[in-house]
């Protein structure tokens, strides 16, 4: 899903960069108010886990790739603002040291994976988790949040490439959404397992509790 240089029209990557910069500035402001020093290591551990998960990727179509995102995992456990900062850090490191995604496309990659994915996951988790009580409801909310976050990021990536005139929408859209519908199932299962384990470890078993690491309301 990392878009390389040369795939996006300047209007697309400049616009995406402006939106991403605004979202990140807000995230810094929000997390600064709630984040405590003792919570920083937890964000680092989450970032390392997502970094490792994202390094396993494979080609999909038109020069793009598919991989686990980790947006739902970070958003559910840490909150969407903290998740955005963690995923942005991961994307920047991958771009600088592993040439995964281009510099001009960084704003679009951040928008897709560090803004859209966490917020779609967070919104889905809150909505579905509030409708169904108990562990079954929380599990369903977690899985659906992870799956939809992957599909939303893939959709945004497809539209950016298609509107740039790089690959026709009729080609890139079914390829990206088809593969990521399958990737989303794996992401959903992994997210359910990790969220369940970490929630018990951090004592966050009740829906609506305040996140230990991000200080944001779940």
From TrEMBL:
Keyword Transmembrane: yes
Name used for this protein in its record: Cobalt/nickel transport system permease protein
Spans through the membrane: 12-28, 40-60, 72-99, 106-125, 145-172, 179-202
Gene source species: Desulfofundulus luciae
Recorded superkingdom: Bacteria
InterPro entries referenced in this protein's UniProt entry, alphabetically: CbiM/NikMN (IPR002751)
Alphabetical UniProt keywords: Cell membrane, Membrane, Transmembrane, Transmembrane helix, Transport
Subcellular location: Cell membrane
Membrane topology qualifier: Multi-pass membrane protein
């Amino acid at each position: 899903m990392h878009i390389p240089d040369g795939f996006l029209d300047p209007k697309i990557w400049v616009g995406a960069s402006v939106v991403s910069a605004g979202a990140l500035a807000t995230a810094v402001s929000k997390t600064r108010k709630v984040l405590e020093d003792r919570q920083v290591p937890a964000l680092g551990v989450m970032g390392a886990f997502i970094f490792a998960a994202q390094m396993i990727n494979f080609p999909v179509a038109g020069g793009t790739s598919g991989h686990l995102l980790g947006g739902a995992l970070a958003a559910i456990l840490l909150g969407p603002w903290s998740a955005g900062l963690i995923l942005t850090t991961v994307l920047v490191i991958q771009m600088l040291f592993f040439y995964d995604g281009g510099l001009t496309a960084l704003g679009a990659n951040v928008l897709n994976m560090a803004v859209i994915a966490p917020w779609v996951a967070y919104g889905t988790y809150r909505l579905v988790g509030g409708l169904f009580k108990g562990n079954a409801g929380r599990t369903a909310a977690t899985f659906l949040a992870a799956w939809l976050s992957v599909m939303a990021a893939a959709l945004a990536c497809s539209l950016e490439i298609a509107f740039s005139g790089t690959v026709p929408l009729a080609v890139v859209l079914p390829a990206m959404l088809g593969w990521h519908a399958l990737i989303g199932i794996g992401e959903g299962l992994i997210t359910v397992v990790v969220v369940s384990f970490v929630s018990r470890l951090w004592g966050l078993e009740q829906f609506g509790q305040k996140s230990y690491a991000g200080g944001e309301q779940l």
